[in-house]
Amino acid sequence: MESLECTWPASWNLQEKMKEELVRGHELANQLHLVVRNGDGETAKGLAAKIVCSFTNSLSLLGGNHDSKGKHIQANTSSNTVALPTLVDSSSWVALEAIKRTEMLINSRSSSKKRKTSHSWSRDAPDFIDDGHTWRKYGQKQILNASHPRSYFRCSHKYDQGCKATKQVQKVEDDPSLFRTTYFGNHTCKHSILKAPESILDNVSGGSPREESNSKFMITFENNNNFPYEQEHPFFSSYSSTEREIIKSNHVASSRSSSLSCDYLVPPDQVMVFESSEPIGRLPTMMELHSEDMITFENNNNFPYEHEHPFLSSYS
DNA sequence: TCGATTTGACCGAT
DNA sequence: ATCGGTCAAATCGA
């Protein structure tokens, strides 16, 4: 059993530690991407463990569970599996999900029962956020073994601009107070890319208690993989006008970076998981989330991303 | 009147 | 054959 340790200099503050962790995770994810493409499963597993460690540490820092003296969280590896980090807290299940999905990535050539073929990402949230795009609901279905129906949305600019972004929203089985939004595809519609969600302005001008007490910091992921990214991330998709009416100003999301870098505006108390087999340049350009939100980015060549979100008129 | 939502039908993937 | 995703007609509401 190999033990991976992630440590920071004792003099580092929270921001520095988190930035280091996220940058390291970015680097490792890029390495993993290349390794997986070359079919080196064992190396990929080791990298996956390090990535999990890095992101788990980040989550710990975000969740305020970090050790202020710069202690570490361990991630263990075994010969055949990517072991769980030893961190046991509210975000540990997030790490679990990360591991499962990383393993899916490693075994990406194994059969996937799911039909979804495009990359996706998901998010759980207790209420709605304005992601800067407009959506049109086009269907709702009762899903087998699910207590709550799933709603289907497409970008409002599907026909006028050929935007293929879609999302699905469903109440979380274990916690019906949460909505899981899964985004599929990237937005190619033009105006929505630069559209600043109203809630940003609300938040900036209003100054919620959260923001007053916690200074935000930004992390920039430069794309160093020479992959061109022509499309924005699906995170910045928006709700329909109907949805906007119930959007709470607790959430902020906006986009402002170039196509080759991503900026993240991250309040210290939020919980996020980033997973991607592709370069981090595909991640959302900048975002700020509610502390109860969880975002999971999954890319995949053959498996889905899920993402969660709130709002269905039928759920109100 | 027109755009958005609802909902049953249809169709493709598994 | 079943399930999940999309279509499209009917309906709603501003």
Automatic annotation (TrEMBL):
The keyword DNA-binding applies. Its main location: nucleus. One of its GO terms (cellular component) is nucleus. The keyword Nucleus applies. It is found in: Nucleus. Keywords: DNA-binding, Nucleus, Transcription, Transcription regulation. GO terms for molecular function: DNA-binding transcription factor activity; sequence-specific DNA binding. Residues 124-187 form the WRKY domain. This is Putative transcription factor WRKY family. It comes from the Eukaryota.
